[in-house]
């Protein structure tokens, strides 16, 4: 008799069968295995379809499309001192802004301040890129729809330019050429170019008007003039709207204390006199070094036209609003009043409340004795006039930011 009640040491469904010395899995188990694979594949496919159909992933970036009533401005060098203030003003005025900066001179902390202030989608984007890289520049313009470019990005120290002239020609002249080429290629219709009074050199007659001949005496001024020449030559056969702003010595900071000037420590010796004064007032340096006391000026020190950064960015916005297709506007941006370095130092002492130690040294190569603007043209044509002309007050505003940001944007960068 068959023992039908015997126990099985292995369930039938999972027991392997031996045929000719080879083991084969039970066909029922094999079918379950492949069924699970098919089910997983089907679920994966369904997930991919749902992701592709998701509006948030399928819709294009707002920076890659043109929208009626929205002006998208590319701000090159927007992490720098002037560029970040310009980006702030544009964002406050409801422009869409893309900042491009390689952070060689700019501060990521400034970008983060702006991102925290304007966090809404489609308001601000930051692209880390070098404008000297043709592929990167092409990619930026191909993936974004810009209506205008404010081109600030540049190395900008007169003394440094005499030490490393080729660096300045590459960074200023060559990079501007790349920007203009890509603007033309991708149909960007407006350029606001950040130039400098250094293109004039050392004119015999003051004040400087836009008709004053340009004879730059240092590589910084020469590189900027070359860039201007490229833009002007291109515009002769183009419908692009162009504004070239030649501005003078920039001081100050955001009156609400959100942004300020924070040069890299290794660049302090080349930087602006305001930064040098503040460093001395905070005992970061042992004192202020004034280079040149034998110029043909009333007190022997250089005379400059100091323009507050708030006024400067206002001039850029007015230039953007007034730019006309096929036309080039060239404007000096200054107060129209010259102040000597000694006057500046006295104002800085009062603004900081610190009796700054001053060391007088020989002239710096590439400097000129006297330069200040005649701002008549920009006042008449763009309805712009400098509002923050009290030197001591501008320095007080800047000093307040410096006191609360002893490490520059170090704290902001950590947020």
Describe the structure.
There is one protein chain. This protein is an alpha/beta fold and 415 residues long. The protein is 40% helix and 15% strand. It has helices spanning 27-52, 55-58, 81-92, 108-117, 134-143, 158-163, 165-185, 219-235, 273-281, 309-322, 341-352, 376-382, 391-404, 410-414; strands at residues 17-19, 22-24, 72-76, 96-101, 124-128, 148-151, 190-196, 241-247, 249-251, 288-291, 303-304, 306-308, 328-333, 339-340, 358-361. Helix 3 links the parallel strand 3 and strand 4. Helix 9 (273-281) runs parallel beside helix 11 and helix 11 (341-352) packs across helix 13.
What tags apply to this protein structure?
disordered N terminus; 15 strands; two-stranded antiparallel sheet; 7-stranded parallel sheet; alpha/beta; disordered C terminus; globular; 415 residues; single chain
Q: How widely separated are the two ends?
A: 85 Å
What is the overall number of helices?
A: 14
- Largest sheet geometry: 7 strands, parallel
**Low-pLDDT segments, ≥5 res:** 1-25, 411-415
List the helices and strands and how they pair.
Blueprint: E1 17-19, E2 22-24, H1 27-52, H2 55-58, E3 72-76, H3 81-92, E4 96-101, H4 108-117, E5 124-128, H5 134-143, E6 148-151, H6 158-163, H7 165-185, E7 190-196, H8 219-235, E8 241-247, E9 249-251, H9 273-281, E10 288-291, E11 303-304, E12 306-308, H10 309-322, E13 328-333, E14 339-340, H11 341-352, E15 358-361, H12 376-382, H13 391-404, H14 410-414
Parallel strand pairs: 3-4, 3-6, 4-5, 6-7, 7-8, 8-13, 9-12, 10-15
Antiparallel strand pairs: 1-2, 11-14
Helix pairs in contact: 3-10, 5-7, 7-8, 9-11, 11-13
């Amino acid at each position: 008799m068959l023992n039908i009640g015997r126990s099985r040491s292995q369930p039938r469904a999972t027991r392997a069968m031996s045929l000719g010395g080879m083991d084969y899995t039970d066909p029922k188990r094999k079918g379950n295995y492949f069924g699970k694979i098919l089910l997983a594949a089907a679920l994966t496919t369904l997930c991919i379809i749902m992701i592709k159909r998701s509006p948030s992933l399928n819709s294009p970036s707002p920076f890659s499309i043109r929208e009626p009533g929205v002006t998208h401005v590319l701000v090159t060098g927007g992490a720098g001192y002037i560029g970040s203030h310009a980006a702030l003003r544009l964002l406050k005025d409801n422009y869409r802004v893309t900042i491009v900066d390689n952070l060689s001179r700019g501060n990521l902390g400034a970008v983060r301040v702006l991102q925290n202030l304007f966090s809404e989608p489609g308001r601000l984007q930051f692209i880390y890129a070098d404008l000297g890289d043709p592929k990167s520049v092409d990619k930026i313009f191909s993936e974004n729809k810009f209506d205008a470019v404010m081109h600030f990005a540049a190395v900008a120290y007169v003394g440094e330019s005499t030490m490393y002239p080729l660096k300045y020609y590459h960074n200023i002249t060559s990079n501007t050429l790349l920007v203009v080429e890509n603007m033309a290629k991708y149909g960007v219709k407006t350029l606001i170019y950040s130039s400098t009074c250094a293109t004039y050199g050392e004119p015999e007659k003051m004040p400087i008007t836009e008709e004053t001949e340009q004879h730059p005496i240092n590589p910084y001024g020469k590189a900027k003039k070359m860039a201007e020449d490229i833009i002007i030559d291109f515009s002769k056969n183009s419908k692009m709207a162009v504004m070239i702003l030649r501005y003078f010595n920039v001081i100050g900071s955001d009156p609400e204390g959100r942004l300020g000037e924070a040069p890299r420590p290794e660049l302090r010796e080349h930087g602006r006199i305001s930064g040098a004064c503040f460093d001395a007032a905070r005992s970061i340096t042992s004192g202020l070094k004034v280079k040149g006391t034998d110029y043909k000026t009333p007190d022997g020190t250089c005379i400059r036209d100091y323009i507050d950064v708030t006024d400067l960015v206002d001039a850029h916005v007015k230039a953007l609003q007034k730019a006309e297709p096929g036309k080039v506007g060239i404007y000096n941006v200054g107060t129209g009043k010259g102040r000597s370095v000694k006057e500046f130092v006295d104002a800085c002492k009062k603004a900081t409340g610190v009796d700054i130690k001053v060391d007088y040294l020989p002239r710096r190569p590439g400097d000129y004795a006297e330069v200040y603007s005649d701002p008549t043209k920009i006042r008449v044509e763009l309805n712009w006039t400098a509002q923050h002309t009290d030197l001591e007050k501008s320095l007080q505003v800047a000093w307040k930011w410096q006191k609360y940001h002893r490490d520059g944007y170090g704290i902001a960068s950590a947020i």
